[in-house]
Design goal:
This protein is mainly α and 320 residues long.
């Protein structure tokens, strides 16, 4: 009786094992075919250093956590409610938006103009491209130190010396006067980062078909008409990408302000990220700083979604 039972059950276990083996091979084949095996290490690192901190910070924003590791009681949305009522949050956010407005326009326009010039130059073209892109490769500390020494209100400052040489009043508080501090940071940022936009525009210009310009010349179109009716329309998509990238980069300003003015004078240049830093690492309120940073994250996410929506709307209007 026992032998009969064993004989009856033995064949049944073999198909089950074969089925499990086939399923495992099928899973491995799917992973290999879709390249999941090769990108799995990246996803692991991505989850460890981005997804997990994002989830952890969101949970921390709902507590009274501080930098010493004590506290941590659940407070719900109290941190968010306090941030909405905090005037320092709104003033820092306004400084960030104002810097974005002041810096985005010249960064886009100057980048386009430099790309147009470099595209037309025929003598030592590589030198012009390198000269205009090289500042973008410098670290923020080097750039800020360079500009602080240039606009230092003393006999050593290059800006005051140039003003004095043409008979103007020197010793302007470039970084200590509220009227000039933000403009000084904007000028530093434009000189430092315009090379990135310049490179994007230059690549887009090289992709414009040459026969469009040849046909326009045969029709008698001058340089300005070719620029207005051919070049700029062909760069419209690139301009949209440049504007969105520049706005996102300007909203995340921290280095220049922290190194050049420290947020002064009277917090007139302090951006929202510096306020988050002060609350978290100076005021030791990690939970509240996390809540402010997630409010700012929501703003950045909203801005990043604007460009795809506008592009889709333009495509739909063009299709009609």
């Amino acid at each position: 009786m026992t032998t009969t039972t064993a004989a009856a059950t033995a064949p049944a276990s073999k198909p089950a094992g074969n089925t499990a083996g086939r399923q495992a091979r099928s899973v491995r084949r799917k992973w290999t075919e879709h390249g999941l095996v090769f990108i799995a290490p990246f996803f692991l690192v991505y989850a460890m250093f981005l997804i997990w901190p994002l989830i952890s910070g969101l949970g921390m924003s709902l507590t009274s956590e501080n930098i010493t590791g004590t506290g941590g009681e659940f407070v719900g949305l109290d941190n968010y409610a306090e941030a909405v009522r905090d005037p320092e949050v709104w003033s820092s956010l306004w400084n960030t938006v104002w810097f974005t407005v002041l810096s985005t326009v010249p960064l886009v326009v100057v980048g386009l103009v430099l790309a147009l010039l470099a595209h037309q130059l025929r003598v030592v073209q590589w030198l012009w491209r390198l000269s205009w892109f090289a500042p973008f490769l410098l670290p923020s500390g080097v750039v800020c130190l360079l500009f602080v020494n240039m606009i230092l209100p003393s006999d050593f400052g290059l800006a005051d010396q140039l003003l004095a040489s043409v008979g103007l009043t020197p010793e302007i508080g470039w970084l200590t006067d509220e009227r000039y501090a933000m403009l000084s940071i904007v000028a530093t940022t434009v000189w430092w980062t315009v090379g990135f936009n310049f490179l994007l525009y230059l690549a887009a210009l090289q992709a414009v078909p040459a026969h469009l310009y040849e046909a326009a010349e045969l029709d008698g179109a001058g340089a300005w008409k070719r620029l207005w009716h051919i070049t700029l329309p062909m760069l419209r998509r690139t301009t949209g990408v440049v504007v969105v990238l520049q706005v996102l980069a300007s909203l995340k300003i921290f280095d220049q302000v922290y190194l050049m003015t420290g947020g002064g004078p009277d917090d007139s240049t302090r951006p929202i990220l510096q306020y988050v830093y002060q609350q978290g690492f100076t005021g030791y309120r990690i939970g509240y700083a996390s809540a402010v940073s997630y409010i700012f994250f929501a703003l950045i996410l909203t801005v990043s979604l604007v460009q795809p929506l506008l592009s889709r709307r333009r495509a739909e209007e063009a299709a009609k």
